[in-house]
Design goal:
Elements: H1 2-17, E1 21-31, E2 36-40, E3 48-52, E4 59-60, E5 66-69, E6 79-85, E7 87-92, E8 97-106, E9 118-126, E10 137-144, H2 153-156, E11 158-162, E12 167-171, E13 175-186, E14 190-197, E15 205-209, H3 217-231
Antiparallel strand pairs: 1-7, 1-9, 2-3, 4-5, 5-6, 6-8, 8-13, 9-10, 10-11, 11-12, 12-15, 13-14
Length: 237
Amino acid sequence: MKVAASLAIIALSSALFADPCYTGFVSGTFSDPELKGYGYNSQISGGYYWEDNTDTAVYTGFGTNAITWGTGTAVISHSGITFTGATFDSVASGQEFELGTIEYLNGGTDPRTTIFGGILNLNITLTNGSTTIVDPLQVHYNSIGTINYEIDADADADFLNFDSLGIAFHVVEQQSDTAVVMGRIEGDPHFFIDSFQLSPDDQNGFLTTAVPEPASIATFGLGLAFLRKRRKGRDPR
């Protein structure tokens, strides 16, 4: 009896102190559109130029998981972002898993109608009977439009700049692409974004390190030049 009681106590202690596992789903909404900001022109010194679109910006969808902005005369005349949250099952604390996807559409928008960023608000809801609340996560991004010269598709690619994550997600003109967002749950608990992932044979988009501020464009330009060289070795679009 003593042995059985000891084993029961050990089993109970193991259950109490085991790392938690989580089951649930991720959701996201966009908020706080930024109507003033920077565009990028590779043909001017320093690259960036300032724009105030307070009275001219055109945008929809804030408060939901899918936003659009801009108008123009191109075949695809608006840009947009859609966040689609993932479901997950029995994810251990600290284990990397898919949080969802970000689909980014790069349309040919009039620079006077664009927006320049906002906030992606992410939430995790647990569904396995747990009353635990996972702290929400707010991610700031800038949407950087480029002046297109139709010489180099990568140079004309607009990009989403996630400064706090150190990631910039570029998509070539008149195309869309989808990045898988990877992250983990840890601690009390809260969650983190670890990385974005693209398909190895992706031809519509590419990732670079984020650009912290306009003054960093010289360093960014060197990195983009390297990426162009590497991408030219792939199969042509």
